[in-house]
Specification:
single chain; 201 residues
Length: 201
């Protein structure tokens, strides 16, 4: 089975989270070769939040074992929504090893603050579940203007979060995932290439 790329193209300036660094790719050509200068934050585009993003002394992105992001993953489709994701919406999948939430945001071509996000109770459910990593197609797993508590609950349980995935070409089901963040020393986050392949039954 071919791999499906879940990574948003870089850069997408129009999709930048309000207040974040606007990503750029400055290209130049000289002496017969091309070179580009990349400008981005550690949370630009499809990226991974390690515990250190919100938790003091939490694991930084370079200290998380790669196998955390490689292996079986379950993708669930919550439908096109801009509402709060509650425990009852995700409870049936809490036995997954890795979980990705599809909300329909992948179709957006500019930043929309009215995206679906977990509430505190859903975050507590994820934190207690034993899931190794959780992902979502929205700019953040937490509501726009949130307090950071959703992140603290999940990251505090040692669960990294993959945000801003492009799930437009993938259906709900079980897959094999490879998600590799840049190995940024002491990184509070890092852009990542995320691909999945349908699990054979």
């Amino acid at each position: 089975m071919p791999f499906i790329d879940l990574t948003r193209s870089f850069p997408e300036p129009a999709c930048t989270y309000t207040g974040d660094c606007v990503p750029e790719c400055r290209r130049s050509q000289r002496d017969g070769y091309r070179v580009s200068v990349l400008v981005a934050s550690s949370h630009s585009g499809t990226h991974i939040d390690p515990p250190a993003h919100y938790i003091e002394d939490g694991l930084t992105i370079d200290r998380i074992p790669p196998e955390t992001f490689i292996g079986p993953v379950t993708i669930i489709d919550l439908g096109c929504r801009s509402s709060v994701i509650r425990p009852e919406d995700i409870r049936p999948w809490m036995d997954a090893e890795r979980l990705i939430l599809k909300t329909g945001y992948s179709e957006k071509t500019s930043f929309d603050p009215e995206y679906a996000s977990l509430n505190d109770d859903a975050a507590d459910l994820v934190a207690a579940s034993g899931i190794r990593v959780i992902g979502i197609d929205t700019p953040s797993i937490e509501a726009y203007g949130g307090t950071g508590d959703v992140h603290r609950r999940i990251l505090g349980a040692g669960i990294p979060v993959i945000e801003y995935l492009d799930l437009s070409a993938v259906d709900a089901g079980d897959y094999y995932m490879i998600a590799l963040p840049l190995k940024i020393t002491d990184g509070d986050g890092a852009p990542a290439r995320v691909i999945v392949r349908k699990e054979e039954i």
